[in-house]
Amino acid sequence: MFRRSLLALSILLATACAAAPYHYDDAIHEGPDIFERGEPQISRGKPIGLLDAIGNVLSLPAKLILWNWKIDRHRVSPETEAAMQEYLTANGLDTVKVRLNEYSPGGEWRRLVKNKSVNWAYRYSIGAVSVLFYTILPGRLFGGDNYNPFTNTVNIYSDVPAVTLHEAGHAKDFAGRKWKGTYALLRAVPFVPLYNEAVATGDAIGYLDDQGKREEQKAAYKVTYPAYGTYVSGEIGSFFGPFSYLESLAVAVAGAIPGHIAGRVAASRVEDEPAPAEAPPRE
């Protein structure tokens, strides 16, 4: 499994490199504006100390596997929010809703009904199931950054800019698809999710590279590659499961390790940002 994960990550490296030059105009089929009147594109959940503290504890395995303590932190900084807003604006993703550590089942059910860019048959079957899971297993407690194409919503619980850009990358990917419901359904086919994740990761890294944000790009490699490794090992492991909880963690670790290696190698190849030019001495 380790070798297969490393091979898949090598393919991802090639995919990310092939993404240059970066394109900002891929959202040619973006869905309709389904916001409520006066509703902001990015909204935040009100801090709930005890609930957020429990969520932080529950996310400890994910923090350790990705070796980043801001994963599922349930507190998103203004800097991370600004990074998301800049990305959405640059890519013309005006109809994507972003929820920062927010639980809004009513809002999500409304968006599901209104999102006519996805065929009704998909919305009221697998789309309804996705919103039902959102309702009864709230990410506000359990975490899990994600993009829901049936409501065109990005849900963020981590204070990691690279993670937010990755999830927004899924939104951009879907925005460029005409048959969004079918594209979402294809994720049920084994190994297809690896393509979807590679597209989103490559877009996030390509965006940071094009923007000249070298430090952020290095950080992105170090978190998105091990995350991708867990997807690889999970897809391979699905042929040998079902697994217990501890076995599932072991599978995730098996994929994350080569991801950490590949991510740090890729980060080491990123040139440092040039030092600001010194002002000429005054005469």
Descriptive notes:
This protein is 59% helix and 5% strand. With 283 residues, the chain is mainly α. It has one domain (2-268). A four-stranded mixed β-sheet has the order 1-2-4-3, covered by helices on one side. The radius of gyration is 19 Å and the shape is globular. The N and C termini lie far apart (66 Å). 42% of the residues are buried. The model has no long low-confidence stretch (mean pLDDT 91).
- How many angstroms does the end-to-end distance come to? 66 Å
Q: How many strands, what sense, and barrel or not for the largest sheet?
A: 4 strands, mixed
User: What is the strand arrangement across the widest sheet?
Assistant: 1-2-4-3
Structure summary, number of beta strands:
4
Helix content: 55-70%
Apparent shape? globular
The ordered string of helix (H) and strand (E) elements is HEHHHEHHHEEHHHHH
Structural class: mainly alpha
Total number of helical segments? 12
Uncertain parts? none
Give the percentage of residues in beta strands.
under 5%
Determine Rg (CA atoms, Å): 19 Å
Domains, number: 1
Mean pLDDT equals 91
